[in-house]
Structures are given as C-alpha cells and as structure tokens.
Amino acid sequence: MTLFDRAAAVIPGGVNSPVRAFNGVGGDPLFLVSASGPRVTDSAGREYVDLVGSWGPALLGHAHPEVVAAVQEAAARGLSFGAPTPGEIELAELIRERVGVAELVRLVSTGTEATMTALRVARGFTGRDLIIKFAGHYHGHSDGLLAEAGSGVATLSLPGSAGVPAAFAAQTIVIGYNDLDAVRAAFAAHPGRIAAVITEAAAANMGVVAPNPGFNAAVAEIAHAEGALFIADEVLTGFRVGPAGWWGLEGGWTPDLLTFGKVIGGGLPVAALAGRADVMRMLAPAGPVYQAGTLSGNPVAVAAGAATLRLADGGVYARVDAAADTIAEAVRAALAAEGVPVAVQRAGNLFSFAFGSPGECGWSGPGPRTYDEVKAAQAWRYPPFFHAMLDAGVNLPPSAFEAWFVSAAHDDAAVEQILAALPAAARAAAAA
Ligand code: PMP
C-alpha cells in the first residue's frame, strides 16, 4: 500500500489542501519528510530542488537555522497561552515598520481568515453588503470569495464551490481583471451598495498576471470616490516581492485594508489583516465587528514570523530576485530552443509560464492579462514538462495555474540543477 493509498483511505482525496494533489499534472503527490534550504526530501529518500516553497512562506529557504532556533526557544517557553504575549506586538510592529499603511494589525492564523475578516470589517465600516472581486483571483476559501477563484479552484476547472448558499454568492460581484471599465460599470449598476473592492495586489493564483500599470491606483481611486474601501490582498505578495510587498514595489496607491499571510509566519500558521486605524478599530473589542481565534497570534508561530521578517533584508530580496531572473530566462530559452511558444509572466520575483502565443490564444498582451485569457493558454503542455522536471529532481508547482516560488537559499548549485533539467523538460513540452 502506498502512502497515497493510505492517505486516501483516511483523508478526502488523500490531501489536506487540494493544491497538493496532482490533479493538474497526473500521478500521485510526493510525500515529503524533510526540507532544508532550497531542497525537499520525499518519503523514498529522494531529494529535489524545490520551487514550491510551501506555496510562499519559505522566502529564506526551508528550515532556516535562526528561524528554527526562534521556534525552539518559543516552544520551550510554552505552546499557547490564550493571553496576549510580547511576541505578537513585535510581529505587528515589524509589519507596520515596513508597510506604513498597516497602521493597526490583527493577527489571525490563515489567509482565508484574513480576507474573510477584512470583508466583514469593510461591511461593518461602510454599512454596505456587496463586494467586488476579480475573476481568477484567489482569496482563500470563505463562502463569498470562491466564485471564479484561482489556485486549486482553477486547477480543478471549478466555477466555484458546492455548498455556498446562492444568497451569499449574490453578495459578490465578479468582474474581469485589469478592466477598469468593468469596475466603473459595477459601481454604476449598484450605487451606494458596494462595500469594497478586493484584489490580489498582483495576481499570482491564475499563474502570475501583474496588474496593468496604474490599475491598482485607478481601482483605489474609483472605490474611494464611491465611498467604498480598497482591500489589497498581499497574502502571497506581501514581504515576498520586496520588503514592503507589492504595495512597496509599485507605489502610488493607498489601500484601506491589506491582508498578509505566508511569509509573515515563516512556515507556521500566521496571517493578518491590517490597515487604516479608523477602519481597523471596527474590530472587537475596540468596535462592533466580531472576530476571534483560540490560536491567533500563537507564541510559537509569531516567533517564526518575526525571525523571518528580521532576516529578510535587502540581501535576501536581491538573492531571490537574481535567482528568479536566471530561472525564468532559462525556462524561456529552453522552450524557445524547442520551438515551444511561451509567455513568461512576471510580477517582481514571482513568475509563471503561459504556454502559447498572443495570436494562438487571443491574449491582449504578450501574455494573458485576464482569467479568460489565462484559460486560453495551452496548459496541456505543462504536465509533461512538470514530470520531466520532477524526474530530474526539480519539484515544481503541480499546476500550470500557480506561481513558482524561489528562495534566498537557491544558491548556484540549486539553480544549476534546475537549468540542467530544462532541455529534456522543454522537449517533453514540445512533444505534447
Ligand atoms: N489570498 C491569497 C492571495 C493567497 O494566495 C492565499 C493562499 N494561497 C490566500 C489568500 C489564502 O490563504 P490561506 O491558504 O492561508 O488560507
């Protein structure tokens, strides 16, 4: 009996998060037993260079010794108290130091909680019910946010989720990404009823699709002119694409609320919503919007997060950016050498690959700019490419709809191993 058979007998689908299944590429998922720096090791003892990075948290690489030490020290002092701790203040201060618009920070355990709560705060603050989200963006699995969501929902080709009451779904207006006219039209169609627009600061759950230049600023301006809030979901981009996330990298817009996750927990469950003090003071016990969590601001988790943020200096981002540039360009070149058309999709150090060309796929840019355009890509070339890389010891995201995650631990040896695997993978993609 394989581990996957055992898992499937006790866990639905054999996985505790659908993105870990190999539905998008075929085959059984690897079961990992350890990880260090740029590498992961599976249950058969095989080592892989990893470009999943726990789906984002592993900015420094896996199991950075100083982060592990911080976790061990915190764990030795106690695992959870259900009372305030100094560590929570430290993490909130580290977040605010880097992202000035995060005036107040509420720590939660998952990105799903962060965005779900941000919507409740926005509704409480504005007294309005409707939310605008963009097709292909993923904001976690709360009821109102699964319509035309990216990530695993896209990989499984689902329009949304069963089990979401129609009345809840009706509170979410889904419109095309990078389409300002659609934003204006939605506000015009529902005057005075829209509480907030939520957007991935740069979309990275339908593959990577950066916002058009000025898009975030224009959406924020439109929302504010209509009395609505602008919520930037930086769960994935925050503290990854730069020390102040996509907000810091792009500049020129002011969110009312932001959401963070992944990197701020350094591999343990920490996420946050943050933003304007007057809006954040809606949260209980300061205000009337209720939110709570037994393990919120858990002392071990915040120690991992704070250690990670303290270590994430300019040198870390320079290393991640350089490795991302090298790998993205090498993939493009390897595919070009085999005559495989591909668009390299970038948002800072995040990247993914859309197979196809504007002519074949009807893209409005050099690569896809919207979810419909992403779905027109030749994604069938990805599974053979993925498996060829895996056979050569490189662990890629098991879906064409996910970003690749590089870490500061991706040294020359790790990058060389990736580059060496590419020619055979490009041939496999060409033969598909
Ligand atoms: N928002 C974004 C942009 C994300 O990428 C994710 C997770 N991939 C989430 C929210 C949800 O976070 P979590 O999986 O921690 O609930």
What can you tell me about this protein's structure?
With 432 residues, the protein is α/β, with parallel strands linked by helices. The longest helix has 24 residues. Helix 3 packs parallel to helix 11, helix 7 packs parallel to helix 8 and helix 15 packs across helix 16. The protein has 16 helices and 13 strands. It folds into two domains: 177 residues, Aspartate Aminotransferase, domain 1, CATH 3.90.1150; 247 residues, 3-Layer(aba) Sandwich (Aspartate Aminotransferase, domain 2), CATH 3.40.640. 4'-deoxy-4'-aminopyridoxal-5'-phosphate (PMP) binds next to helix 4. The site of 4'-deoxy-4'-aminopyridoxal-5'-phosphate has 16 residues, from helix 4. Its EC number is 5.4.3.8.
